[in-house]
Amino acid sequence: MTMHLTKVAGAASVAALLTALLAGAAQAEFKLDSRYSDADGDLIADIPSDPAQQVDPSTLIFAYTPVEDPAVYAEAWADFLTHMESVTGKKVQFFPVQSNAAQIEAMRAGRLHVAGFNTGSNPLAVACAGFRPFTMMAKADGSFGYEMEIISYPGSGIEKPEDIKGKTLAFTAETSNSGYKAPSALLKAEYGLVAGTDYEPAFSGKHDNSVLGVANKDYPAAAIANSVMHRMIDREVVKAEQLVSIYKSQTFPTTGYGIAHNLKPELQEKIKEGFATFKWEGSSLEKEFSKSGEAQFIPITFKDNWSVIRQIDAANDVSYNCQ
Predict the structure, then answer these.
(1) Dihedral through CA 202, CA 208, CA 213, CA 214, nearest 10?
(2) Residues 6+ positions from 47 with CB-CB distance below 8 Å
(3) 3-state DSSP of the chain
(4) Bridging pattern class, strands 114-117 and 59-64
(5) 242, CA 20 to 30 Å: which among 26, 47, 149, 254?
(6) Which string of b and e fits 93-111 if b means at least 16 CB within 10 Å?
(7) Crossing angle for the helix pair 14-22 and 182-191, nearest 10 degrees?
(8) Rounded CA gap, 198 and 221, in Å?
(9) What are the φ/ψ torsions at residue 260 (nearest 5 degrees)?
(10) CA distances from 318 to 121, 161, 286 (A)
(11) Partners of 132 in the beta sheet?
């Protein structure tokens, strides 16, 4: 799929951004909520050693990060969930979450067992909900990730990031990396633009809302994950010519998939097996996610793959309040 956005600014250097942001910043150490332990130092919650604290639900509840119309993704994940049922021997139910906060709370409360949490909410899910991520989607060649883009529409008068001054910029949610954390940080570090002072922030709730809002000229500009935008263009929800890209970052890790920490160890291994053995070719998952280039699941670790995201959080003085 070839994009026809009319302008893309030079790619931002994540390293340079972090250097600027972290200069003089007091970095809070990432740590789990007190209800979880991390004896092996991998930054994710340990499986409870007491079998009485481990759970073995008859139905596994699965949720995909709330970025677009849940009905679209219930259909997209159908073949995968059938495969997971075959591997685990359990019924697997798709749970359409409406917000990152609701998704995290569901896992913290024990109502969600398997999930994909978006890039920015992954650290909060790990710290506060006992989320154990282990895989993400990747292209056939093993490369993975997406870029944050700031988009506008033709004729808006916004042709470069500096033009956002005095205008409204749509974010998605404060837990989103590309929808809030990264763009607000880089606009401050690279352009001296502070939300609420130099421009008016608005929160759309989801990436598709932001993309649609710009395409329909409800928002003059928005910060979004371009993987979502690419899929929306391929589905003809919006047209590429309705959008202009004025900033594109380097690549960030995408949605991380994992499990609740207190599932029985043998069940956790079966769920991991389900991801590792899923055949993409001809599946409903391939039909949807090939639009943004994904073709397989690859193993990841939160400690390594989310290091840059934790650094951005530290630079933004993010605290993981689990109350």
Answers:
(1) 100
(2) 54, 261, 262, 263, 265, 268
(3) CCCCCCCCCCCECHHHHHHHHHCCCCCCCCCCCCCCCCCCCCCCCCCCCCHHHCECCCEEEEEECCCCCHHHHHHHCHHHHHHHHHHHCCEEEECCCCCHHHHHHHHHCCCCCEEEECCCCHHHHHHHHCEEEEEEEECCCCCCCEEEEEEECCCCCCCCHHHHCCCEEEECCCCCHHHHHHHHHHHHHHHCCCECCCEEEEECCCHHHHHHHHHCCCCCEEEEEHHHHHHHHHCCCCCHHHCEEEEEEEEECCCEEEEECCECHHHHHHHHHHHHHCCCCCCHHHHHHHHHCCCEEEECCHHHHCHHHHHHHHHCCCCCCCC
(4) parallel
(5) 254
(6) ebbebeebeebbebbbeee
(7) 70
(8) 14
(9) -65, 140
(10) 12, 24, 35
(11) 259
pLDDT the model gives residue 20: 52
Q: Are 124 and 286 in contact (CB under 8 A)?
A: no
CB-based burial label for 168 (10 Å; 0-12, 13-18, 19+): middle
Q: Round to whole Å and give the CA distance between 74 and 134.
A: 22
**b/e map of 10-43 (b: 16 or more CB within 10 Å)?**
eebebeebbebbeeeeeeeebebbeebeeeeeeb
- Lookup: tokens for 50: 């007491």
Nearest 5°: the CA angle 120, 124, 126 is: 110
Among 253, 259, 310, 218, residue whose Cα is nearest residue 45: 259
Question: Is-contact 152 97, C-beta < 8 A?
Answer: no
Q: How far apart are CA 155 and CA 82, in angstroms?
A: 47
Single pTM value for the model: 0.79
Task: Say if residues 114 and 259 touch (Cβ distance below 8 Å).
Answer: yes
Residues in the chain where the model's pLDDT stays below 70: 1-28, 67-68
Tokens of 157: 């008068």
**φ and ψ at residue 59, rounded to 5 degrees:** -125, 125
Residue 134 near residue 82 (C-beta atoms within 8 A): no
